[in-house]
Write a structure and sequence with these properties.
The structure holds 2 protein chains of 2 kinds. Chain A contains 12 helices and 8 strands. Chain A is α/β, with parallel strands linked by helices. Chain B has 16 helices and 26 strands. Classes of the chains: A alpha/beta, B alpha/beta.
């Protein structure tokens, strides 16, 4: 039985006790899947499992607070669920986690670029076939094959958790561990190599095209301020509506600071950005700092308390006193 | 929300660098609309200054008073004008005039040109103070029930005297000692230098009698093998978490007297004198134990030593060891030990290597002279260069700086007068109590002359050697002084709690509990509100540190005196001048 069929079976069994099960279905064209909310048995058959399931369904969980729901997750998504549990933003008794081994998802932007290189428009995609290490996209009657390693999302190239860290129903064989590709952290390395003025110029250049749609925020499973987001708050009036790079960058920096030690690097902020701004790098940088300082990784252990959400008189790795 | 702010500028805090009248004119010009009264005064904390402000408040024209000058740490009890007006402080003295440095690191000379940055910093602080005040909410001070139990930390000479003094005035005392018996360092002493008439003989310390008085006092509850784990709350309503064995117990107390004591210098300072390498080099504490046992013997062969060399200032007044301070009591106990040596071994000869003899106590100098003149101890002014063994003896080679020669003494026994260090764990204890300590781990008093036994945490007092090395009479005096200050605190009928605490906006709170996890004082609890989890601040326990406000993603928890709005207004005032 395929992973997908096994998932469907388990979901059908559990569905009667659940408000809904969140997963993925076919989207508006062959290249895009889209979130699916399974509320009846008929919906189960719409479920998809594979390289086009780019979204992180954990983002919807806090809005179902108080109701018992199921969620289908990839390994990376499961970390967001765990982090939400760690922060008591969702209740363990009210969430049922379905999962299977994940062989990676594609980065649609990379696929689009490959198609463009072959003279094709991604809007004409008719069929997508993923076969092991190759993705074959048929557009305008022409099939273009591309190696998965070249079109996979960056996070998949350095994936540590191809299998869910927490699942109530894990089906099929676990996916093999990924050898981190050397280019996986190229974004951080490039920023590290810059001088401070160069880095500022880099961010000013990229943030200049921000349209302040806040898709990055809405896609973030850990973004929990909701109605009290600094982007909209008038009391206090942290951000003005002035169309300046300073205001736009200010939001990104505050967002990143709020995520320090909480971000599971699911990459949804960057994926959701319609302007292709590399906003994940800010969060990755802070996560690296947190990891170096506290030897901590978010969303791996439900019982762990994130380092910035606890008080310790003496930190293990911060020696601010002589004793 | 203050609308009629009286701004008062303390000339003594800005003079002679700046003119207070000019600053007052500046405030009038920039913020005149919100500040009907702007005045300068030579010294606001003087009775005349306070009376001036009080007259303006009584005239009913103001709803807030902004004191611009000294740190809010000082004179907070002076600047209280009833609950009709809000009071806030702008620290011009510590933040600007005292701390400002020229780019080359030098201070600004009075009378010379005044840097534009210094002036604009003062002006910025004034404008920020006004806008912060405009956004300040009226505090809601609680008047809770008070607890007048005194927690004394440390069962040594100081702590026991403080406990007895407080209990003698009718207070309930909990005396906590981390070891398994009372007495502290004094319990290890055979005798001490004289403390009573005619100040000639080394005398019994009286520690056993003191222990008897403490254990026999019904108002003093002695808790041995116990340490303080946490102190939460505010004066007259602290909650102390006491740990004993594996057990923890929460005890309500009103105030704390710290008498954590001291510890003798570690062996690293003693190593250059052969301690640890040669058996016949001992510390003064080890020698005292021999005297107490009535059994002065060379550790190497058990023979009675006929020549004993005392080396003073081991680990004291030594910059190379980062111990530049004088341990205070070593001169006296060395003289005492020289006398006791002669008492026990009449045909012995003592030598004392010293830097200076520091014996400023009552009849102290007479006592050290007695050691020299009547007991024949030979005092050699100079430092010891090396100590080495030769033919069963210890050769002590040093300088005699008065004679300008080198001296060598063949000693049977070498006694090192090890200096005093802060007690082990003193800095950690200080952090638990939120008091300051110096780089050597000794606790800081609020002010050496004005508040010698107070700390910068209200309701926490200190006494004895935990503040700096002290001999027994000084420690006893300080223990009694601390007891008197605690009793003065409790002599008021009502104690006001600090209104500068966090508050939860229940509409914004999502009940995630992050603030509960980060609060160092366990001052936030989870409550149920219409079926939803919410956070709630326990007002008497909150210390107003603000960690929760930076943790809360929703901005649902705010420090009443530093709301986001106030800080934002200050930043705007600073950046939009």
């Amino acid at each position: 039985m395929s992973r997908l069929d096994a998932l469907k079976t388990r979901i059908k069994e559990a569905l009667p006790g659940l408000e809904c099960v969140i997963g993925w279905q076919k989207g508006y064209d062959a290249l895009h899947n889209t979130p699916l909310f399974i509320r009846g048995e008929a919906d189960v058959d719409k479920l998809e499992w594979g390289a086009l399931n780019v979204h992180n369904p954990a983002v919807y969980l806090p809005s179902f607070a108080g109701k018992k729901v199921g969620v289908v997750v990839k390994g990376c998504d499961s970390r967001s669920v765990v982090e939400l549990l760690q922060e008591k933003l969702i209740d363990r008794d009210n969430v049922v986690i379905f999962s299977a081994g994940c062989d990676g998802v594609v980065d649609i932007a990379k696929v689009r670029a490959k198609l463009a290189a072959a003279g094709l428009n991604a809007g004409n995609a008719e069929k997508v076939a993923v076969d092991g290490k190759t993705v074959t996209v048929t557009a305008a009657g022409k099939a273009v094959s591309m190696p998965m390693a070249e079109v996979a999302a960056d996070k998949c190239l350095r994936c540590q958790f191809p299998n869910a860290v927490l699942a109530d129903a894990f089906v099929g064989d676990p996916a093999p561990q990924v050898q981190a590709a050397p280019a996986a952290d190229a974004d951080l390395a490039a920023l590290d190599a810059m001088s401070v003025p160069e880095r500022m110029a880099f961010w000013r250049y990229h943030m200049d095209r921000c349209i302040r749609c806040y898709a990055c925020r809405n896609a973030c499973p850990m973004c929990v301020c909701r109605d009290h987001c600094i982007a909209q708050s008038r009391e206090p009036h942290w951000l003005s509506q002035e169309d300046s790079v300073t205001e736009k960058l200010m939001f990104q920096v505050v967002h990143a600071m709020h995520l320090a030690g909480r971000c599971t690097e699911c990459g949804e902020c960057q994926r959701a950005c319609p302007m292709d701004i590399p906003v994940l790098a800010l969060k990755k940088h802070l996560n690296r700092t947190i990891h170096d300082l506290f030897d901590y990784q978010a969303g791996v252990d439900v019982a762990a308390i994130p380092p910035l959400l606890q008080f310790k008189l003496e930190e293990d790795n911060i020696k601010e006193r002589s004793w | 929300m203050a609308e009629k702010i009286g701004v008062y500028i303390d000339e003594s805090s800005v003079a002679p660098l700046l003119n207070a009248e000019e600053l007052a004119a500046y405030v009038k010009e920039k913020c005149g609309g919100a500040c009907p009264i702007v005045k300068a005064h030579k010294r606001l904390s003087s009775p005349d200054g306070v009376a001036m402000i009080k007259a303006d408040v009584d005239a009913g024209e103001l709803d807030a008073v902004l004191i611009c000058g000294t740190s809010p740490r000082v004179d907070w009890d002076v600047f209280t004008f009833g609950d009709k007006v809000l009071v806030d402080r702008v620290n011009l003295r510590e933040f600007v005039t005292l701390s400002y440095k020229n780019p080359d690191g030098s201070s600004v000379a009075a009378g010379g040109p005044i840097p534009a940055e210094l002036r604009s910093m003062v002006q910025d602080y004034l404008r920020m103070g006004v806008v912060k005040m405009q956004k300040m909410n009226r505090p809601n001070p609680e008047l809770p029930e008070t607890n007048r139990t005194i927690l004394v930390l440390g069962g040594g000479f100081t702590g026991m005297n403080a406990a007895l003094a407080a209990a003698g005035a009718g207070a309930e005392v909990i005396l906590v000692e981390k070891s398994d018996k009372l007495g502290g360092r004094a319990a290890g002493l055979y005798k001490t230098f004289p403390m009573n008439y005619p100040y000639l003989e080394a005398t019994d310390t009286g520690i056993d009698r003191l222990i008897g008085l403490v254990t026999g006092n019904s108002r003093i509850k002695v808790r041995l093998n116990t340490t303080l784990k946490l102190l939460a709350g505010a004066p007259a309503m602290y909650e102390a978490t006491l740990a004993s064995g594996g057990n923890e117990e929460k005890v309500p107390v009103g105030s704390v007297v710290l008498a954590a004591g001291w510890t003798p210098m570690e062996t690293e300072a003693l190593a250059p004198f052969g301690y640890g390498k040669f058996k016949n080099v001992v510390t003064s504490a080890e020698f005292e134990a021999m005297v107490k046992a009535g059994d002065i013997k060379r550790p190497s062969d058990g023979k009675e030593p006929k020549t004993v060399v005392f080396i003073q200032c081991v680990g004291s007044r030594d910059k190379s060891l980062d111990r530049p301070y004088c341990s205070g009591f070593c001169c006296m106990y060395t003289a005492k030990q020289a006398i006791l040596t002669k008492d026990h071994i009449p045909d012995s000869q003592s030598y004392v290597f010293y830097m200076d003899i520091r014996s400023p106590g009552k009849m102290y100098d007479e006592f050290t002279r007695r050691a020299m003149e009547e007991y024949g101890a030979r005092y050699i002014r100079g430092r010891v260069a090396m100590v080495y063994p030769k033919d069963g003896k210890m050769i002590v080679r040093g300088a005699d700086t008065l004679a300008g020669t080198q001296v060598e003494v063949e000693a049977d026994l070498v006694v090192l007068a090890a200096g005093a260090e802060a007690a082990k764990g003193a800095p950690q204890l200080a952090e638990k109590l939120r008091i300051s300590y110096d780089k050597y781990g000794f606790f800081m008093e609020s002010h050496p002359k004005l508040k010698p036994v107070e700390t910068n945490t209200a309701g926490v007092y200190l006494a004895g050697s935990c503040q700096g090395p002290k001999d027994i009479p000084q420690s006893v005096g300080q223990g009694s002084a601390a007891a008197a200050k605690v009793l003065a605190l409790f002599s008021k009928d009502m104690l006001e709690s600090d209104p500068q605490i966090s508050r939860v906006d229940i509409k914004r709170c999502v009940g995630c509990g992050k603030c509960i996890m980060t609060c160092p004082f366990k001052a936030i609890k989870e409550v149920e509100f219409r079926g939803q989890k919410k956070a709630e601040v326990i007002e008497t326990v909150c210390q107003g540190c603000g960690i929760c406000t930076s943790t809360c993603p929703q901005g649902a928890i705010q420090l009443s005196h530093f709301t986001d709005n106030q800080i934002l207004a200050e930043v705007n005032a600073l950046c939009q001048s």
